[in-house]
Amino acid sequence: MSLIISLDEGIDIEKPLDNKLNKIVSTILDQEKMSDCVINLRLLNDKEMRKLNMQFRQKDKTTNVLSFPNDDISVTQTKNIGDIAISVEYVKEEAKKEGKTFDDHIIHMLAHGVYHILGYDHENNENAMIMENKEIQTLKKINISNPY
Predict the structure, then answer these.
(1) Exposed/middle/buried for 131, CB within 10 Å: 0-12, 13-18, 19+?
(2) Angle separating helix axes 125-141 and 15-31, nearest 10 degrees
(3) Could you tell me if residue 128 is left (phi over 0), alpha (psi between -120 and 50 degrees) or otherwise beta?
(4) Could you give the dihedral angle defined by the CA atoms of residues 27, 30, 36 and 41, in that order, rounded to the nearest 10 degrees?
(5) What is the phi-psi region of residue 99: left when phi exceeds 0, alpha when psi lies from -120 to 50, beta otherwise?
(6) Are strands 65-69 and 2-7 parallel, antiparallel or unpaired?
(7) Which of 43, 85, 93, 95 is least surrounded, with the fewest CB atoms within 10 Å of its CB?
(8) What are phi and psi of 113, to 5 degrees?
(9) DSSP per residue over 88-146, as a string?
(10) d(CA 101, CA 79)
(11) Could you tell me the pLDDT band of residue 22, with boundaries at 50, 70 and 90?
(12) DSSP sequence for 33-81
């Protein structure tokens, strides 16, 4: 498993957070029996996230996380199963409002994004419960409490 992290200008993360981001991805992929794959993570600001949200979802606003599954033929050669974008600014503000640490919240957003890449969604209550339970159980394995 490999997580390739790209940091936009002005964004930096500490080594312990980098390690935890890698750990949550490897934990999920091991559980899902998909350990031989690659995920790209881009950490960016609200301005860039707003552009992506507009371009791909036609929503003219920022958001916390976007996931882009790779469903083309290249997956068999590259092992790259998708890309995730997380707005560091948005997640910092959201964590503050919700009384969470930034590290725990960004790790949760990455887990959420990975589950989307793997085909999970929250389009209806039943699917949302499945996805949320997976997130809760996975986060618990790395000592992060229920984010919901």
Answers:
(1) buried
(2) 120
(3) alpha
(4) -30
(5) left
(6) unpaired
(7) 93
(8) -65, -40
(9) HHHHHHHHHHHT--HHHHHHHHHHHHHHHHTT---SSHHHHHHHHHHHHHHHHHTT---
(10) 32
(11) very high
(12) T--S-EEEEEEE-HHHHHHHHHHHH---S--SEEEEE--STTHHHH-EE
Please tell me whether residue 147 adopts helix, strand or coil conformation: coil
Which residues are within 8 A (CB) of 21 and not within 5 positions of it... i.e. 6 or more apart? 3, 5, 13, 41, 106, 107, 110
Sheet with 2-7: list strands edge to edge: 2-7, 38-44, 80-87, 65-69
Please write the tens of the pLDDT for every residue from 79-134: 999 999 999 999 999 999 999 999 999 999 999 999 999 999 998 899 999 999 99
Which residues, in sequence order, are CB contacts of 123 under 8 Å at separation 6+? none
Cα(71)–Cα(28) distance, integer angstroms: 19
Rounded to whole angstroms, the Cα distance separating 100 from 65 reads: 17
> Could you tell me the residue ranges of all domains in the chain?
2-141
**Residue 139, token pair as written in the block:** 């986060």
* Token pair in block for residue 20: 């935890």
